[in-house]
# Entry
Amino acid sequence: MEHVQSGSRASLCWAAIRKDLVIYLAILLYIALAGLAAWVAGVGERFSVLVYPATTLLVVPVMAISSVVIFSAYVILILKPDTPIGYVRSAIARLLRSEGFFRALPLLAFFTLFFSAASSFKALIPFFNPFSWDADFIVLEHWLHGGRQPWEWLQPLLGYPWITLLINFVYNLWFFVMFLVVLWQLIDIRSEQRRHTFLLSFVLIWVINGSLLAVFFSSAGPCFLDRLFPGEANPFSELMYYLNDASQSVPVWALPTQDALWALYESKRIGAGAGISAMPSMHVSVAWLIFLLVRKEAAWLRWLGRVFVAFILIGSVHLGWHYAVDGYLAIATTTLIWWLSGQWITLASKGNAARE
# Structure
């Protein structure tokens, strides 16, 4: 009897994995190729898939509690059932018994390994290709934006400490929003097409934008120019001076984060979020991917998606992290990746249906 039950459980596990096989294979292939590239470059000891497990153990409970709070607010304010607490408890109980929850658990473990691999690979970018594109992007920015750097156009509107605080708050909220949306799509299996398109696109934007293009267009970004190229002309010096001055009256979290990233870069250590890379902007890439996901949802969600992208794109420039062109390329490549992923998932679904 126990043998039959264990065999049945194994069959169920394999059936669940098969449904998401393309995501598992994409993650495994990236880890293998990224690790191989690090080994060939002679820095294999700095590549790790164990950067994020401890962070995940902290993030997942926070995301779970946040999801319950958000869902409870939705139930109370929008659905308004007779017994809100009972409604929420029943919904959570159904979720914990659902196929989506069962399929999300092993995928979450794989995504933890994936984030670790992507983070440690990002920290190795200067080993593959030293920062060399910043000067070109500065010239391109000047040419595209009417003879001025984009931050100069934005500064009269945004150059107030309380506005910088708001922008920085939303920019940091990106991490929370990203993990929340990923968990949503891991669990929500109501539309396999949408779920697989998003998850595959999410993996591919880190593979293509965050790794391949980041190596090819190796650049550090405005906030690191003075440290990398001391004594050279820097059109972002006044922006960094403003941010440091604003930090005397309000928190500007970007500045200590930039210092922490620079310390990791100098010490050649890896860690959660380590690595310096400007082009393309992964903040913008992820924000735009989330918008592509929700653009056919409720009007309020589409509106939030647009506002979030605008804040992230503007914040990436105003806080000195990126050149505007980093965001422009991220939007273009993410849109293409989303479309190609959707085409692939559609073809794969038709093939599976024909075999069945």
The chain has a mean pLDDT of 90.
